[in-house]
Amino acid sequence: MQSNPTVVLICPDEAERRMLTRALVMQGAAIASTYDAYPAYHELPAIVDLECDAFVIELDTDADIGLDLVEVICTRKPSTTVMVYAQSHQADLLVRCMQAGAREFLSGVLKQDTVAEALLRASARRVEQTAKKTRGKLLTFWGAKGGCGVTTLATNFALALRTETSGEVSLVDLNPQLGDVAVLLGLTPRFTINDALQDPNRMDEEFISTMVTKHKSGVSVLAAPDQYSSSLAVETRSVGRMLELIGGGFPYAVVDAGMSLGNGAETLFQMSDVVYLVTQVDITSLRNTQRLITHLQRFSQLKIELVINRYEARKMDFDEERLAKTVGMAPKWRVPNDYPAVRRASNTGVPVVSEKSQVTQVLHEMARAACGKVPEVKKKRGLSLFG
Q: Does 1 reside within a domain?
C-alpha cells in the first residue's frame, strides 16, 4: 500500500466525522479535504477533480442525498473508489450503494484491518489506473438546433482525424433513438450503442471492443440502431462508464451528440476536452447558441469552439463582430455551404472528405488543430479558416 493514501471525507455528522477521521489517519491515510455538509451541485466539478485514492461518504445524515452524491461521483469519475459509511449494516442499503457505484461499504465500529484492507484496494486501483495509458481526447460535436449538420461534421471530422494522425480514432453516435452515422458511412453494424448502454455493470474494455464496427477508413464506429426505440432509458452512469472505456482504448474519441442528450449531457460535458458547438447564421440558431455557450461555460475544464456551418459570407445579414457580441464568442471555424457535395455524400454513403472541396479543407484543418499539428499555410489570401 502507498505510505500515505489520500482520502476526501464527506460527512455531515460531527461524531461520525471525528470517528472516521481517526480510523483513516490511524491507517496512514492523509485527509485531502473534509466536508461537513453534502456539497451543492455547483461544487461537484471541483470536488470530482480532487486528486485522491478514495472518497468516503457518510449516509446516516441523509441516505438519499448521500447516494445521489455517490452516483454523481462514480458517473463523472468512473475510475475512482467511493466508500460509504453507515452505522447499521442493512442489506437493502448495501444493494443501493452497489447500484450507485460504491466499491466499499463500511459500517458500525470500524476495525483497523477492515479500514486498512479498504484503503489497500483503493490504492491498488489508483496505481492500476495510473499505470494504464492516459485517457484519449474526447471531442464532442453538439448542435445549437436540429438539422444544423452535426452528424455530417462529426462523421467526416473523425475520418479526417484518422488521416491526420494515422492513429486509432473512435466515433460514437450518441443519438440512441435517431442516429445517422452508420448511414453516412454505409455501415450495417451488428451491435449498437443501445447494446452498450443497457447494462453498465457489464461494461469493460473487451465488451466495448466487441460493440464497435470498423469502417474501411480505420475509424471504429459505435453506431446508433436502425430501429427507433422510445423505451430506452439512458442512465448517466452508463454514459460515463462507456465514455471512460472508449477514452481508455482510443487516443481520440469523436462524439456525435446531436442536439439533445437528456440525462447523459452533464456527464458528457464533464468528460469532454473540446465541444464543437455547431450553429448557423439565423436568429433561432444564434439565440440557442448564446444560451448553450452560457451553459457550457459552467464546465471550467471545457474548451468550446464555435463552428458556423453552411457559411456564406455574402449572405450574412450582419458582420462577425456583431455575431460574436450576440452569442458571446467569436467563431473559430467556418464550414462553407456546399449542399450538392453533402447531399451526394448522404445519398451514396461516400463521406464528404473523400473528395476535394472547401468543406474537406476545413475539416482537415480542424483535425490538424485537434491533434496538435501546425496549420498549413494557405497559398491564397482570404482563405484562412481560423477565427
A: no
